[in-house]
Design goal:
Length: 166
């Protein structure tokens, strides 16, 4: 439980912007770059479900998950599901661009510093996928390859709970 709490706090450090975010604690602290090399900040207020996938170009299971994440992005974006990828490769953003294109990644991709993210978020392996609800709570942390159906089950649980509140 402590590990999950630290992960949630670290995630908000990493991904929440200061404008209108719904995360419990909105601060800055991680180094994320977009594919143009600009510092990135991802809002926590524009989704019902946020899927964050940590991956690397050299990771076989990561490459297998990407088409499934593309499907989730395409099929559930209109319902408030946001998918993003954070590459943990040690390269410059412009070097990552051809991999993103070759892998046909349809969702936003950012470049993170592996050591920083792994130590602050306690990521023990990749692929690692976090499923986060609209309030910033991590509903599931998946380490290793997981099928689209496993991720979709958590998405549906969150969306169903949101619908019941309305």
């Amino acid at each position: 439980m402590l590990k999950t709490s630290l992960l949630a706090a670290g995630l908000c450090l990493c991904l929440c912007s200061t404008g209108g975010a719904e995360c419990p604690k909105v601060v800055t602290g991680f180094s994320l770059l977009d594919l143009q090399g600009k510092k990135a900040s991802i809002s926590c207020a524009d989704h019902k479900v946020l899927i964050i996938n940590f991956w690397a170009t050299w990771c076989g299971p990561c490459r297998i998950e990407i088409p499934q994440l593309n499907d989730l992005h395409r099929d559930y974006h209109a319902q408030g599901v946001k998918v993003i990828g954070i590459s943990l490769d040690s390269m410059r953003p412009e070097w990552l661009q051809p991999y993103v294109k070759a892998l046909k990644i349809a969702y936003p991709v950012y470049l993170g510093k592996a050591e920083e993210l792994q130590s602050k978020l306690s990521i023990v392996g990749i692929p690692a996928t976090l499923v986060i609800d609209a309030k910033g709570a991590i509903r599931r942390q998946l380490v290793g390859y997981h099928s689209k159906d496993v991720i979709l089950k958590v998405i549906r649980e969150i969306l169903d709970a949101e619908q019941k509140k309305s």
